[in-house]
Amino acid sequence: MIAVYGGSFNPVTIAHMKIVESVLNIDEIHKIILLPLADNYGKPDLAKAIHRYNMLKLCFSDNRRVKISSLDMRTPEQLTTIEYMDIFAEIFDEQLAFVMGTDNLEHFTSWNDSEELLQKYYHVVIKRDEDDINKIVENDELLTKYKNKIIVIDNIGIDKETLMGMCATNVRSYFREGRFTDLDKCIVEDVKAYMMENKVY
Fold it and tell me: Which residues are within 8 A (CB) of 126 and not within 5 positions of it... i.e. 6 or more apart?
């Protein structure tokens, strides 16, 4: 099985890297595709996609189980989740799993094509804070119907307080303010050097 983990990665942090490690520790998953969102996503303070792509490459250059995809960057129009999952399914011709946090799971059935996503693909859910995933699933008829397609990661090995400090918004602030001691706790050295050399933020 191949996992697909999409996001802005603005920038990629140690928390993102821990999520990747946790996903790859799932026995059924042998590879993960990281999909940085394109420039047309419209998120405030979003670095150029090419920079976010390059920083991901730096983080995982020595891990053959991690593939960085430029699919969204190369697509003129913004793709929906089902569209890019279907594209990857056609390319790799094997079972896929979509990676999300419990914040997305809570509202997942309001997404377009949510039932088709659940029918076709597994979903790896990263537990956040004190969220009760079992309760979220039990309180939603559609999620209950497809609960066998949901794989839960309870802990990525970072405590709540540290994880909050690593959020990408804080990382960008640390960088701009020259708070490099704080920054070093959140990103790897190669990413910091790239950000400084290319004046990413």
Answer: 19, 22, 99, 100, 101, 102, 153, 156
- Encode pLDDT of 151-176 as tens digits: 999 989 888 788 877 889 999 999 99
Specify the residue for token string 């956040």.
128
Residue whose token pair is 């430029």: 70
pLDDT band at 7 (very low <50, low <70, confident <90, very high): very high
Nearest to 121 by CA among 28, 33, 3, 17: 3
Into which CATH architecture does domain 2-158 fall?
A: 3-Layer(aba) Sandwich (3.40)
Domain residue spans of the chain: 2-158
**Both structure tokens of 196:** 């400084």
pLDDT tens per residue across span 22-40: 999 999 999 999 999 999 8
* Structure tokens, 179: 């708070």
Listing from the earlier edge strand, what are the strands of the sheet with 2-7? 66-68, 31-36, 2-7, 96-101, 122-126, 150-153
pTM, full prediction: 0.94
Q: What is the dihedral of CA 188, 70, 112, 41, to 10 degrees?
A: 70
